[in-house]
Amino acid sequence: MCNLYRMTKGVDEIAHLFEALPERGANFGDEVYPGYPGLVVAEGKARAMTWGFPLVLKGKQGQPLKPKPVNNAREDKLLTGFWLPSFKARRCLIPVTAWAEAEGKRGQMTRTWYQLAGEETFAVAGLWRPTEEWGDAYTMVMTEACAQMVDVHDRMPVILAREHWAQWTDGTATEALSLCETCDLSLDVERTSERWAGDPKPAISKPEPEEASPRLL
């Protein structure tokens, strides 16, 4: 599953690439962690939401605990109760530069980054919904891992080719479900010595270049 990804572009550049309206003042970090804000494209707008649907938990004495962000949705569970309303009515695109998986021995795990070869930004399938706890929140749809990363993790994000963006957001549930397949495109893999655990960087409102050029899939 994905618990960390990069999104290094500003909101105006993403809005231009996805032909969406930019949300001014959208705050998000270059590295996105569960429970923190990230940029999504939903309902024709590029805007910040919290990564993860809140799962309300209770303690041993029945007391409410801090909600847990459920930031991944398996493609084979999309038609079940927790995900179904959002899958049918609120699908979104998640702009991603690269995503990370933990690799190595327990307690010594490092970050291994995966990126679509030759692309600075690509789209991952997502769902979103309004929440009482965090406002609008989103989750990332996962499917079986490709051969390039199956030795590290058995799941990976659903990567959408540009020609399938509208089908994911605006198509029927059946049409969208047909896109939830393992990516057959080449990935760039970057194995690092950076420890997996780390403190999230603060979200910021990113300055935009004077001219943002689209990068197409």
Describe this structure in words.
The chain has 217 residues and is mainly β. The chain contains 4 helices and 16 strands. The protein has one domain: hypothetical protein yedk fold (Alpha-Beta Complex), CATH 3.90.1680.10. The chain is 11% helix and 37% strand. The strands form 3 sheets. Strands 2, 4, 5, 8, 9, 12, 13, 14 and 15 form a 9-stranded mixed β-sheet that branches. Strands 3-1-10-11-16 form a 5-stranded antiparallel β-sheet, with no helix packed on it. A hairpin with a 3-residue loop joins strand 12 (122-131) and strand 13 (135-144). The longest helix has 7 residues, at 11-17. The protein is globular.
What's a concise summary of this model?
The chain is built from 4 helices and 16 strands. The chain has helices at 11-17, 84-89, 165-170, 173-177, and strands at residues 5-6, 21-22, 31-32, 37-42, 45-51, 53-55, 68-70, 72-74, 91-96, 98-103, 110-116, 122-131, 135-144, 155-157, 159-160, 187-195.
